[in-house]
Structure formats: C-alpha cells, structure tokens
C-alpha cells in the first residue's frame, strides 16, 4: 500500500484538515446563497471527488465559493431554485468547451486589476448582505440599498433582544476568526472557521439563545435535478447573461487561484486548459444535481498545501469525508446558528478586498488602481455581470490609450530647418494632437520630420503625415524605395517605417 501510494500518510492528514475547513464554508455559502445547506455540501463533494480526480492542478481544492455567493443569490431570487441546475449545467458545458478549445491560458490575459476589483466588489456586497443576517434583519435587494440601510438595521438590532443575541453571536464569530492566528500553535491545529462555528454552536446550546439555525432537509431531499421544462428558460436573455457571468467569473477565479497555489509549492505546475475542463466537469455534475456552482477556492487550497498534501489524493479524500458527514450526520447541521455562518462570510468578504494592493497600485500604477476601484463600485451599484464588463471596458480603453502614446519633440536652433522627432506609437487616437503640433510650426521655414523613434505608425497617421507634407511650401515629389512621396526638407514617410 505504501509502495503504491508513497505519500498516503501526508495526504490523509491534509484531507482531514481541508475537510474541517471546507465543512463550515460549504454550509455558509449555501445558506448565504439562499439554497438548502445540503447543496453546499453536494458541491463540495463533487469538487473533491469528481474534479479532484481529474488532471489540471494537483493540489488545488474546489467547492462552493464566497466569490459566487452574490451572483447565485441574485439568480435564485430572479429565476427560482429549479433553474439553478440549468445555469450551473450550462456553465460546466461551456467550461468544457473552452478547455477543449485551449482557451484556459487566455484567462491569464485578463487584467489583474479587473479580477481584484471583481473580488473586492463581491466582498463589499457580501459583507453588506451578511451583516443583515448577523443583525437578524431582512436585507434589501440592491447593493446601494444594502449599504444605505446598514446603519438603521444595526441600530434597530440594538433595541431587540433576539436581534441583539444574533448580533453578539455574529460579532463573536468574527472576533474568533480574527484572533485565531494569534493563539498558540497547538490551538491553531483546529481550523479557525470550524472553531468559530463550533464555539458559536456551543454557546447557543448552553445559553439557549433565541437565534435562527440551519434548516435541514436531508441530502437526497435537497437534490433537485433540473426538469425538462426548466431548460426552456435558456431562451431567456437574462438566463443566458447569468450563464456567461457564471462561466467567466468561475473560470477566472479558478485559474487565478491555480496561479496562486502554484507559488505555494514546488510540485507539478498547473495545466490551465485541463484545469478548466476539470472545473467544467465538476460544474456539469453539480448542475445535473441542482447544486451550487463550484470554483477553485484559495482558502481550502492553501490549507491543503500547508497541511503537507503531496498529491491529488488529499482533495479526493476530503470529498469522501464530506460525503460521509452529509450521509451520516445531517442532523448536526440543524445545530449551527445562522449568525455564526454569516460572521464567517463577513470575514471572508473582508479578505476579498485587497486593501494593501490598492495602496500599492495607487503609488505605482494609478490607472490600474482606478480600474480596480471602479470595477468594485460598479458591482455594488449595478450588478456583478455589468460591473465586470465596465471593468473590462476600462482596462481595454486604458491599454488602447497607453498603446497610442506618442511624443513630438521640436528642436529649433533659430537658424536652419526646424527638427521634429516623433517617438512612441502613432495611431489615429493621437492624430489630432500630432497634426495640431505640426501645423503650429512656422510655415516659412523648412521642417525635418524624423520618424525613426516610432514603434508603430498606423495607416491613418501615415496618410495624414503625407498630406501635411504635401501642403508645405516648396513641395517637390520624389519616390523612395517604399514608393511614398516626400516633401522638400522632410524625411520620407517610408512604407517600411515601424
């Protein structure tokens, strides 16, 4: 046995750690998404056993993620729980197709600022929404309404005994998570999320606190495969837009997580296209079972690496432990207080906001920092899909603007020709500026235009420079090797110029 599986001891120990980290997160994400708690466990099981067996990233762990909570909740509220399976199934099939077409590596081309802005926006909406659950209050539907209503909800909770108990339990859970890293190493062998939920559950039981707990329907009772009639919703434009949003966000989050996990260990590197297909296979199965969508989750993945995992066996075994728990101990879920799960997600949402990254970007790349902030605020103000599109549009616009950067340097020694040097990238975006500067030069003196510093000269700029040269006094035509007319006193605008 040890000869065939030389790392089984390390992988077994790591799988138990990942299981203990994943259990409260699977349940918390499901509850926050507005679906039965068992569906979060189903997604964790599929992420461990199905995706875990496939090639791609050997140590990355998949399951329900906080990053999709907001989008899933909106989809369930708008289309209903029976449609969730269709959304996730279609997402999985799209990911399989993209992996087969080898598009996985292209997700690395997405601006990091857009991805971090997306996660920050998700974090803000997640925090706002779960603070209402902590205060035992009903959260408004829109992001701006959630933000605006928070002070009133918290103030109202202070005057209500049940809400105050819920608020205290949620705040206590967050405090345990924040302080857990500062405790002795022996104590920290228990994962922070599990300890926080366990303590909250114990306090609730001992003091008989009047707080809401998880509703339990049973594993088989919660699984709802999509009916044939549910697939008719694919004609709905809103459903299709949600599928695209699921696909892009889940894929980007998984592949960026894979890149982060690769930096944590010295083992085999991620094969991005195969990892995308593994995620697609997992989401296809989750969709067929009517469960939550999955992504790779950096919290579970880093716990897996830090616990000493060496092969994919650890993540597969963690899925087996989740399955055994869901099958043998489902009643234990009913003891978990909702405010504790909300506290875990508030803490998770806070960690999604890259405060240090924003400060660092602002110092070195203010344009990227602006994209990050605008993407995050757009997600809060509008919705997930449109917010990401706004971020991508800003990123493309910024790249186009920088790619068209051009510098015109004019040297006038008072006598002889005026020397003008163009450098950078001369594109139509900067053409008005180039022509204004050239046409402002004295018309009664010869001009030498040097294009050797250009990296790129597009057709619009070339044509405009030729027309400008033809309007100069004492124009004479001569053809160079490229066949381009030149003006007296003007260096040729060659067809071979960069």
From TrEMBL:
Membrane-spanning segments: 12-32, 79-97, 109-133, 153-180, 192-214, 234-256, 320-350, 370-397
Keyword vocabulary terms for this entry: Membrane, Transmembrane, Transmembrane helix
Residue ranges of domain SLC26A/SulP transporter in the record: 9-375
Main localization (coarse): membrane
Subcellular localization(s) per the UniProt record: Membrane
Region: Disordered, residue numbers: 479-498
Coiled-coil segments: none
Topological category with respect to the lipid bilayer: Multi-pass membrane protein
InterPro entries: SLC26A/SulP_dom, SLC26A/SulP_fam
Protein name: SulP family inorganic anion transporter
Organism: Streptomyces coerulescens
